[in-house]
Amino acid sequence: MLFNKQLDKSLRVCPHCGHHFRIPAKTRIEQLVDSGSFIERDSDLSPVDALGFVDLKAYPDRLMAAQLSTGLRDAAVWGIGNIGGRPVSMCVMDFGFIGGSMGSVVGEKVARAGEAAIADRIPLIIISSSGGARMQEGTYSLMQLVKTMGVVERVKAARVPFISVMTDPTTGGVFASFAVVGDVNLAEPNALIRFAGDRVSSGTISEELPAGYARAEFWFSHGFVDRIVARAHLRDEIIALLGFLIAPPLNGSAETPQAPVSRPRSFLSALTGALTGENVAESHNGETGASRGEAPRG
Prior knowledge:
By secondary structure, this protein is α/β, with parallel strands linked by helices. The protein has a single domain, classed as 2-enoyl-CoA Hydratase, Chain A, domain 1. The protein has ten helices and eight strands. It has helices at residues 4-9, 25-32, 59-70, 104-120, 138-157, 172-175, 198-205, 216-221, 231-245, 267-276; strands at residues 39-41, 76-83, 86-93, 124-130, 162-171, 184-187, 193-194, 227-228. Strands 1, 2, 3, 4, 5, 6, 7 and 8 form an eight-stranded mixed β-sheet that branches. β2 (76-83) and β3 form a beta hairpin. α4 runs parallel beside α5. The radius of gyration is 24 Å and the shape is globular. The N and C termini lie far apart (94 Å).
């Protein structure tokens, strides 16, 4: 028998078997960030019932019940905080809110966390705990896969570090989008990680699935997860990774190195030059033949 007070002291991890219980988003944030440093953003974003969806109960009724039980407006919390003294943009999902399902608000919060990471040039950390796309929002929910991946690709193009932490469970559309494409993918022990259930997965490939294929240890053994980290060590692991991923200031300067600016040449200009024989070569950083010391021809 386990008592809640005993579990709270061990970060909701069983001291006997090591089982990691699911924890609310705000508890997760308190465990990871420096005390008092986290500033939540967009806490007032709320989902709407655009489809008038009804299953066993109306979608607005489900939302109200989830909001009362969790104290959240939706299944994700994002904001800016410090971990080990380093600022980060963090988005944390809460499985207690309709299974952590990703609807339009969750997708928007993930996207805004990524955009803030790009704007401030600080690492992006997303902690997933989700059953996947939210069926009550239909196609609006599926569109979040594209939106979140678009922002993640921009984060990578800007050379901003992205650490993904997969907790139990990370499945469905969240697994199929941003959760598995971090620069470093971490997972908690024995976390359920997969796209679909056993019946659908085995039916798709017409093969028997290997034992334990949907657990973090299986993904780690196949290189899909970089590290399996117990909850008690997760903060220290992230601090160490931030030290590796963030370049120190050059020559003691406090300025943050900026990503290189891409200036692609227009495809049409290049094509026109090739067809007409005109010289459309662009000078690099304003450099001309004279500035390179080339002697004039003729």
